Amino acid sequence: MLKGKVALVTGSTSGIGLAIARAYARQGADIVINGFGDKDAIEKERAGIASEFGVRAHYSGADMSKGEEIAAMVAEAQAKLGGVDILVNNAGIQFVSPIEDFPVEKWNQIIAINLSAAFHAIRAAVPGMKAKKWGRIVNTASAHALVASPFKAAYVSAKHGIAGLTKTVSLETATFGITVNAICPGYVWTPLVEKQIPDTMAARNLTREQVINDVLLHAQPTKQFVTVEEVADLAVYLASDSARSITGAIIPIDGGWTAQ
User: What DSSP string describes 80-137?
Assistant: First the structure.
């Protein structure tokens, strides 16, 4: 379905991003993965994608907090693979704290990586998409793009910003064969979610089991974590020709969380 296309997925060395990259490769797209982690483990993932799906797979270690590195990553993808047809802005970090104790440096870091990085990547990729009259931009937002939770001031602010960025760019690119949408997962069992459990335990004075059942899954009527594969399948659909009329959409995949 995506043979001949190039997909760049930020924050894709694990979790949702890696699942999306693998799903696109399964459909025949050449892939650029990005993120931090153990170099050997990243190379194993990159090589595995290339060999398993018979596609070109490239790794960029661009720092998502630095606009110039993001622009360079897009330029490198264009030079080495022929362009960026599908851009997935997935990189994200989290920090949990009461607002009066929220470290300023954490606020700045989360806004940079969770929001500004998407701006820089879209800004760099859109000219190439316009030239081809085809493009797909998928922003990984969150249920927190639609609703708030306490102790997550920076994350919720950034994800609400992603929703606004998605809508704005969709209007600007609507006549160029480009769609721009945001996927809003509920709680997905990923390293990002797992790592925030101790902070939430401390912030709310709860046990690990209470955080999982009474905080995380409490929000989702299904009482189940969303899977990375479910999110990846939605990202594949949004990249398809069947989804060409879906643009500017903020799409929950959250077990009913935001229906409440």
Answer: HHS--SEEEE---------GGG--HHHHHHHHIIIIIHHHHHHHHHHHHHHHHT-EEE
User: 13: which residues sit within 8 A by CB, 6+ positions away?
Assistant: 33, 34, 35, 36, 37, 41, 42, 45
Q: Which residues contact 215 (CB under 8 A, 6 or more apart)?
A: 200, 204, 206
Cα separation, 203 vs 158, in Å, equals 21
Residue 36, SS3?
coil
Q: What fold does the segment set 6-185+227-244 form as a domain?
A: Rossmann fold (3.40.50)
Q: Angle, to 10 degrees, between the axis of helix 15-26 and the axis of helix 39-53? A: 20
Predicted pLDDT of residue 216: 84
Helix or strand (DSSP H, E) at 26 = helix 15-26
Q: Is the pTM of this model over 0.70?
A: yes
Given pLDDT bands bounded at 50, 70 and 90, which one contains residue 176?
very high
Question: Which pLDDT tens digit goes with each residue over 201-259?
Answer: 998 899 999 998 888 888 899 999 999 999 999 999 999 999 999 999 999 999 999 99
Q: What residues are labeled active site?
A: 155
Q: Where are the domains of the chain?
A: 6-185+227-244
Q: Give the C-alpha separation, 104 to 252, whole Å.
A: 30
Tell me the two tokens of residue 77.
């993808």
